[in-house]
Amino acid sequence: MATLPTTTPRCLAGFSTRAVPVTAAALPGGLAFTAFALACPCGGNQWTIVGHHYSPGGNEAALVGPVALRCAACARELPLIDTDVHGYDGEHGDSCATSGDGPRGAWACPRCGTTPAPVVAAFGYQYEDPEPGTAWAHRLHDLFDAFVLAHRCAAGGGRPVVVATFKCA
Q1: Is 5 among the domain residues?
Q2: Is residue 1 part of a domain?
Q3: How confident is the model over 96-153, as pLDDT tens digits?
Q4: How far apart are CA 65 and CA 111, in angstroms?
Q5: Total tally of structural domains belonging to the chain
Q6: Quick one: which of 25, 41, 59, 154 has the fewest CB in 10 Å?
Q7: Within-domain flag for 3
Q8: How far apart are CA 161 and CA 152, in angstroms?
Q9: 77 neighbors 68 (Cβ within 8 angstroms)
């Protein structure tokens, strides 16, 4: 891949975004990822993460999509990611990530429970730059193959806690 996209993926359209280093999402530097701190249109940046809880084989529950964020300042719930429509496979009408249906619940941080906190969304890319004028040349930012959501827990000194990782291709 020649260059990382600088445009935010369309799944972030409802948020105000600020580019941040990938280390803010608990990822090591040097990876082909872009990362964004998310804020609500009201200006709030403290979020409760809402999604489906999936326990394959009775193991520890994992958060699966669709995932939304609920703003602590205004209580607005904004959709964040649905792998059925976002990411490389979602954009091509497919999904390779587990998703849930029915009522969603708040994700609980192992350090602070469901206390709202800032979040960072990171997107991984592994593709070759397409020829100019091809169908996807202007939408590369939507063709991410990995998604990582991190919660910046105050109880943990602001260090990121990975909430979810989704394979999207």
Answers
A1: no
A2: no
A3: 667 777 778 999 888 888 889 999 999 998 766 666 666 766 778 888 999 999 999 8
A4: 22
A5: 1
A6: 59
A7: no
A8: 6
A9: yes
Give the number of other Cβ atoms within 10 Å of residue 149's Cβ.
27
Residue of 88, 68, 70 whose CA lies nearest to 80: 68
C-alpha separations of 23 from 30, 55, 75, 86, 127 in Å: 10, 28, 28, 23, 22
Peptide bond into 21 cis (omega under 30): no
Q: How far is CA 48 from CA 74, 99, 145, in A?
A: 12, 19, 25
Residue 85 in domain: yes
What does the pLDDT average to over 28-56? 90
User: What are the DSSP calls for 62-108, one per residue?
Assistant: EEEEEEEEEETTT--EEEEE-TTTSHHHHHTT---S-B--S--EE--
Give the tens place of pLDDT for each residue, 57-93: 656 667 888 999 999 999 999 999 998 889 888 888 8
- The DSSP annotation for 6-28 comes to -SPPGGGTTSEEEEE-GGGGT--
Q: Which domain holds residue 138?
A: 10-167
151, β-bridge pairs: 119, 161
Contact 166, 89 (CB under 8 A): no
